[in-house]
Specification:
This protein has 19 helices and 43 strands. It is an alpha+beta fold. α7 packs across α12 and α13 crosses α14. It holds the Pfam family DNA_topoisoIV.
Length: about 900
């Protein structure tokens, strides 16, 4: 039987697995995955930099092949895969990976899109100048050296590091049971914080955070919010919200726009973003994008996202932030090796650990320099002895058979030297080298030479025997004594060590600091999308089949009464424009559906379109049910407590509810009013409890009553009777009378209308049939709209074919209530007027009662099919009102 071991010991499998696995875990943690807090490097990075330093491949020397560096590292220090070693070298040369690259690469070192670097036989490298600050004073015994993997070489256990490289360049790694993810920072800010801590060790961490407000990524972009960043600095765990830097460009004459991405979040590739975006477009998870392409080149990042006509760039961009990596989170997990153990550190602890390291480095460097200075002073003393006794020493050397005998002869006797006495008079026993007794040297009998002195005398050149050399030796000795005094002073005064550290940090900052690349948006939680939207007045239209769009108000210039107007929207067959209002992009829109539910929008969320575009289905903006449609809309500035929403239905039912009840609707909508079966909401208005309410029917009747006749009710209430209607009649408009100086403009489906002083509409109780507002003759047709106007104002009229005209109110003559009116708009064959809207200046709105453009006329238009209409040429109309010769005079003035 074969015997495998001379002696065996039983051991628990569980204990062996635990011990072996812990050994393996600590080996990975310490030897591969986690950086050292002192120099911010993992072993492979440290070995690469050291190997390049040893081969003198520095910033002012020629490049060498990366294959040579990788070979040196593998053969001498890092017995692992060449691929992993080369990838580590490549990362240190990528300007999009490190905030301050440590390796200067020449050739293809990859791209931020994920392209790999060329093979190491093609690329070349050398150390960057800033890497020299990590390796400075390495040969002055500032750090411990340890044997390499086979014991044939020595390598540093840590680099001296003159700046906090771990915070400056960051690090990431996954170990066993733990990971680290430290973001890069701006060198100038980190050095400033280090100097502040050096000056005041008791400084509060909040003061350090004010100096280092956030990370600074090599790819720039925007840091969106600092609350979680500050938490990371305080506790070692936090997150950084990053957003791409973008701008919007016009790409054609029709107003189409494109979102241009100039900078991406850290560690996000452009092709990666575009691939994900293309996938989401195919899945119809995002709309409004017509084309994607990557135009990045050597000049920088440029991703182009072309939008469809009518899309609002800010809205699309907000969706991109939510759904793609244009907004990304960097998780701060500040784990590093401190005294050989992995620990979570906050910002102050990182800087304290670095300063402890620097204090040790400066102290060890000073001790090394002191030893070298003492040794040099001791050698100078021996040279002075030789110059003073040159004849005797030459004779002794000539008589000696071998150098060793000569050395023993020099050390075996005492020498008289006045020069040495003068030199030693300037020094004390503290200046002796550490390896010699304090009293060694000049004794009562003379000066005794040490072994280093005797060896140096034997190596002297004959030219050193001249008289001039004595002066040089004396001068150098004085300098050495001064250096020794200074070094001893440094070692005895910690404040001098701090001053040296501060001076070296300031020098690093002066040479390598640069401006921030990542912009900081401090209070992201207080920044809303509307802050990015330019306030402007827009015309919002909603078609019968639910297509909505917004157009700048400036696109419509005032025309003469009777003009043909501009095309406001291209409608499809069986569709026509049904709703129209003027609002500011920062206003709210309450949308009320045929099922009595309310939905909430911002005006800037309505897609903008050209004057001929159809717009976008409103069902894409709201979460409505399949058989639900919007049939009343109300623009609102703010949800004030003293304002009410006044409702009117086509069956003459009215209701008043506090506006604040609608301030926070759910995405799926909230109950707005309880409707009877078959009834629909025709209008809503804002009121304040101090005005009269007017209802107009399509039969030409109007009723006016005090709004306080209707008590405030809850959202789920049905309401009360506001107007009695004849069989088949319906209410088409709701108005809130502001003052007696206003006029009421009524319009009929055949394009006729008139302006009547509001004083002619006397107040009656609610629930009556009302009084005549305008004659509904065969010429006029039924009433389709009514609104309050002022003489200096303007109105918009729109047909079911999509034609819109803007005209001045003062061009429409004031007439009595029972007249037929005059021509407001020339209609095409089969075309009907669907509604009108009063246009108020913003100043007028501010000076009013708060209703402003919120006094909406939601006229129910004729549902006759409208033919597909094209652009209509603008045409002027007559300045004066002239009677229509084909219409008989009814005795109430021109018709």
């Amino acid at each position: 039987m074969e015997q495998f071991a001379k002696e065996t010991h039983p051991i628990s499998l569980e204990q062996e697995m635990r011990r072996s696995y812990l050994d393996y875990a600590m080996s990975v943690i310490v030897g591969r995955a986690l950086p050292d807090v002192r120099d911010g490097l993992k072993p492979v990075h440290r070995r690469i930099l050291f190997a390049m330093h040893e081969s003198n491949t520095v910033w002012n020397r020629p490049y060498v092949k990366c294959a040579r560096v990788v070979g040196d590292v593998l053969g001498k220090y890092h017995p692992h895969g060449d691929t992993a070693t080369y990838e580590s070298l490549v990362r240190m040369a990528q300007p999009f990976s490190l905030r301050y690259t440590l390796v200067d690469g020449q050739g293809n070192f990859g791209s931020s899109d994920g392209d790999s670097a060329a093979a190491y036989r093609y690329t070349e490298c050398r150390l960057q100048k800033i890497a020299g600050e990590l390796l400075a004073d390495l040969d002055m015994e500032t750090v411990d050296f340890v044997p390499n993997y086979d014991g044939k070489e020595m390598e540093p256990s840590v680099l001296p590091a003159r700046f906090p490289n771990l915070l400056v360049n960051g690090s990431s790694g996954i170990a066993v049971g733990m990971a680290t993810n430290i973001p890069p920072h701006n060198l100038g800010e980190i050095v400033s914080a280090t100097l502040a801590l050096l000056e005041n060790p008791a400084i509060d961490i909040e003061d350090l955070i004010r100096i280092v407000p956030a990370p600074d990524f090599p790819t720039g972009a925007i840091i969106y919010g600092t609350a979680d960043v500050k938490e990371g600095y305080r506790t070692g765990r936090g997150r950084v919200m990053m957003r791409a830097r973008t701008h919007v460009e016009e790409i054609d004459k029709n107003g189409r726009q494109a979102i241009i991405v100039d900078e991406l979040p850290y560690q996000v590739g452009g092709d990666q973003v575009l691939s994900r975006l293309a996938e989401m477009i195919r899945e119809k998870r995002i709309e409004g994008i017509s084309d994607l392409r990557n135009e990045s080149d050597k000049k920088g990042m440029r991703l182009v996202v072309e939008l469809k006509r009518g899309e609002v760039a800010e809205i699309v961009l907000n969706n991109l932030y939510k759904l793609t990596q244009l907004q990304e989170t960097f998780g701060m997990n500040m784990v590093a090796l401190l005294d050989g153990q992995p620990k979570i550190l906050n910002l102050k602890q990182f800087l304290e650990a670095f300063l402890r390291h620097r204090r040790e480095v400066v102290t060890r460097r000073t001790v090394y320099s002191l030893r070298k200075a003492r040794e040099r002073g001791h050698v100078l003393e021996g040279l002075a002895v030789a110059l003073s006794n040159v004849d005797e020493i030459i004779a002794l050397i000539k008589a000696a058979p071998t150098p060793s005998v000569a050395k023993e002869g020099l050390m075996g006797r005492t020498w008289k030297s006045q020069l040495v006495q003068d030199m030693l008079a300037r020094a004390t026993a503290d200046y002796r080298p550490d390896n010699l007794p304090k009293d060694f040297g000049l004794g009562a009998e003379g000066y005794r030479l040490s072994e280093p002195q005797a060896q140096k005398i034997l190596e002297m050149q004959l030219q050193r025997l001249t008289g001039l050399e004595q002066d040089k030796i004396l001068s150098e000795y004085r300098e050495v004594i001064a250096v020794i005094e200074d070094l001893l002073d440094i070692l005895s005064k910690p404040e001098r060590v701090s001053a040296i550290i501060a001076a070296e940090l300031a020098e690093v900052k002066r040479e390598f600091a640069d401006p921030r690349k990542s912009e900081i948006v401090v209070n992201a939680e207080d920044i809303k999308l509307e802050d990015l939207i330019t306030p402007e007045d827009v015309v919002v239209t909603l078609s019968h089949t639910g297509y909505v769009k917004a157009q700048p108000l400036d696109e419509y210039r005032a025309q003469k009464r009777g003009g043909r107007g501009k095309q406001a929207a291209t409608t499809k067959e069986d569709d026509f424009i049904e709703k129209l209002f003027i609002a500011n992009t920062h206003d709210y829109v309450l949308c009320f559906s045929n099922k009595g539910k309310a939905y909430w929008l911002k005006v800037y969320e309505v897609p903008q379109g050209s004057r001929t575009s159809r717009g976008k289905p409103i069902v894409n903006l709201l979460r409505m049910e399949a058989d639900e449609r919007i049939n009343a809309i109300l623009p609102v500035k703010e949800f004030a407590e003293d304002k009410y929403v006044f409702f009117a239905t086509q069956e003459g039912v009215v209701k008043k509810t506090s506006l604040s009840d609608y301030s926070r609707p759910r995405p799926s909508g909230i109950i707005a009013v309880d409707l009877d079966e078959g009834d629909v909401l025709i209008g809503v208005a804002l009121t304040d409890g101090r005005h009269d309410v007017m209802l107009f029917s399509d039969e030409g009747k109007a009723v006016r009553f005090d709004e306080n006749d209707v008590r405030p009710m809850g959202r789920g209430a049905r309401g009360v009777r506001g107007m009695n209607l004849a069989k088949g009649g319906r209410v088409i408009a709701l108005l809130v009378a502001e003052n007696e100086q206003q006029s009421v403009l009524t319009a009929t489906e055949n394009g006729f209308g008139k302006r009547t002083p509001i004083a002619e509409y006397t107040r009656h109780g609610r629930g009556t049939q009302g009084m005549i507002a305008i004659q509904t003759s065969e010429r006029n047709g039924k009433v389709v709209a009514a609104t309050l106007v002022s003489p200096e104002g303007e109105i918009m009229l729109i047909t079911d074919g999509g034609v819109l005209i803007r005209t001045r109110v003062n061009e429409i003559r004031e007439m009595g209530r029972s007249t037929q009116g005059v021509t407001l708009i020339n209609l095409g064959e089969g075309e009907k007027l669907s509604g009108l809207q009063n246009i108020l200046d913003r100043d007028e709105e501010e000076n009013g009662n708060g209703n402003g453009h919120a006094l909406v006329v939601a006229a129910e238009a004729s549902e006759a099919p409208a033919a597909e209409s094209g652009d209509v040429e603008e045409a002027g109309g007559s300045n004066a009102l002239t009677p229509n010769p084909d219409t008989p005079d009814d005795g109430n003035g021109p018709s």
